[in-house]
Amino acid sequence: MPVFISGLPLHVLVVHAVVVLVPLSVLAALTVTVWPAARRRYGWVAVGVTAAATACIPIATSSGEDLRDRLVPTALIRQHAHLGDQLLIFVAALLVVLTALVWFARRPPREAPGAARRPMRALVPVLMVLTIGLAAVSVVQVVRIGDSGARAAWSGVQYTAPQHQGGAG
């Protein structure tokens, strides 16, 4: 995998897919979790967006590792890499739980009477709670990773007041 594209680190480009897709998948997952009509109509779309987000994370971490190997090691970069390595666990778990939620919620009820009638559908409320929890953890982790990455990239930058050029008007 190339480290740079047209002089720009690949990681900087790829990470934007993660920054967009993970919150989008969280929004989609929460929507289909709390709104049954949306779950029936868009549940598999939410699963697809979450799968795309999950697939982008290893590309972002791999390109980040390639970039890290070309930078002077600092505590901020190590912290950013450590947080970035955790994201796949949370988003992959969200994908699994969301897929189970959509699948179990769409299963037709069994015809058997009594307690054996819908044993698998009893999992739906549990899956709903897990989906909400994993969605929250995933979006918080993206914010933490982004913040640590910004600190690692920009912590030594000094800003100055804008310099006006041209004639006074």
Distance between the first and last residues' Cα:
51 Å
CATH architecture: Up-down Bundle
What CATH calls the topology is: Four Helix Bundle (Hemerythrin (Met), subunit A)
**H/E topology pattern:** EEHHHH
Overall body shape: elongated
- Helix content, binned percent: over 70%
Q: Could you give the order of strands across the largest sheet? A: 1-2
- The percent range for strand residues is under 5%
CATH class annotation = Mainly Alpha
Kindly provide the radius of gyration, computed on alpha-carbon positions and rounded to a whole number of angstroms: 21 Å
State the helix count: 4
Largest sheet: 2 strands, antiparallel
| Class of secondary structure makeup | mainly alpha
The low-confidence parts are none
Report mean pLDDT, rounded to a whole number.
Answer: 87
- How many domain modules? 1
Quantity of strands, as a count: 2
